[in-house]
Amino acid sequence: MPIASFSLVALDCPDTLALATFYQSIVGGELDTKFADLWVILRSETGADIAFQRVDDYVAPSWPDGTPQQAHLDLDVADLEAGETAVLELGARKHDVQPSPDNWRVFLDPAGHPFCLVKI
């Protein structure tokens, strides 16, 4: 029997509401802003919730060398070109390193976290 169950993924960031709103614009869902100065949860329609935690001395991870320690999100899209256009308009930046641009593309969110759009 497990001693815990999965709750959600949390990303550190300097501005919880700004980053949560960025991802909400991509995947939809509702924002739980009860503790917005420290913590915002994006509750998705699929149950894959994500939280955004304020860290005052936040340092964006670098990619691909991975310092500081990091995780990243893979977001499925039907059309890579349309997905790229949409996330760039929302404030993402396309990363210089693109290991497999025909299948997935690497971007940085407004707080500097890498995330990928993956062709489904």
Task: Kindly describe this structure.
This protein is an alpha/beta fold and 120 residues long. The chain has two helices and eight strands; from the N terminus they run βαββββαβββ. The strands form two sheets. Strands 1-4-3-2 form a four-stranded mixed beta sheet, covered by helices on one side. Strands 5-8-7-6 form a four-stranded mixed beta sheet, with helices on one face. The longest helix has 12 residues, at 16-27. The mean pLDDT is 90.
Summarize the entry for a quick read:
This protein has 120 residues and is an alpha/beta fold. The chain is 18% helix and 32% strand.
CATH topology of the largest domain: 2,3-Dihydroxybiphenyl 1,2-Dioxygenase, domain 1
Q: How far apart, in Å, are the first and last alpha carbons?
A: 34 Å
**Structural domain tally:** 2
- Our estimate of the beta-strand percent is 25-35%
Strand order across the largest sheet = 1-4-3-2
Helical coverage, percent range = 10-25%
Give the beta-strand count.
Answer: 8
Average pLDDT across residues?
90
What overall form do the CA principal axes indicate? globular
